[in-house]
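Standup notes, structure subgroup. Blocker cleared on the flavin mononucleotide input:
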Amino acid sequence: MSDEETQPESTEAIDEILRTARSVRRRIDFDRPVEREVIEECIGIATQAPTGIPAEIWRFLVLTEPEPKRALAGLYRQALSALAEARGGEVKTSQQQLADRLDEMPALILVCAEGRPAPDSIPLQVSFYGSILPAAWSLMLALRARGIGATWTTLHLLHEREAAAQLGIPENVTQTILLPVGYTRNAVLRPAERRPPGDITYWNRWGHPKNS
Ligand SMILES: Cc1cc2nc3c(=O)[nH]c(=O)nc-3n(C[C@H](O)[C@H](O)[C@H](O)COP(=O)(O)O)c2cc1C
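Run returned:
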């Protein structure tokens, strides 16, 4: 391997992936499995993300068989029902539709971390989650680059202990993001409406508008 600095030839393709990595909940080909090698390739890319100390705490639990998918989907639905109740019955239709067909998703990828975040230290918590969530996001992007849609979900964590018991996850492993994944079908993914950088970026001192 050379030490020479490498630069992608064009940023266009990368920027397009970054701009359009939207949640894909409905436009999924439920009948097309996502190949194990493709998932492993994407995990290989994801683990190029930054890692802290201890290094490489990431673990990936990929559910493709009906029974574990059903078990996790059941817990996810319970969590969504509780959320709906708390909001007076209101959840987004697409969120409900994802929940309804969660166990039909070709794969559910649960991104886990060895260890537990410190209960009362912000630096240690940031370090812990900062060592796992970039990999989860890279995984979603790598999947997206291969035509595989996903949704960034956390709802099942309301039942993290039950999920651990169902799936054999040890006590000292923290579950984080659950990515339900499948090849997209007729999904048109567009950039989201977001506030412009000038409105959310300060230079040199908090709160100073960029031009002052
Ligand atoms: C921390 C976090 C947790 C989320 N949890 C869920 C979830 O459990 N279920 C779900 O359907 N979407 C979940 N989402 C996805 C958001 O609902 C999604 O980003 C939102 O629908 C906006 O769509 P977009 O990402 O395509 O802009 C979560 C997003 C974030 C950032």
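Discussed briefly. Strands lie at 58-63, 107-114, 148-150, 173-183.
Next: hand off to the docking folks.
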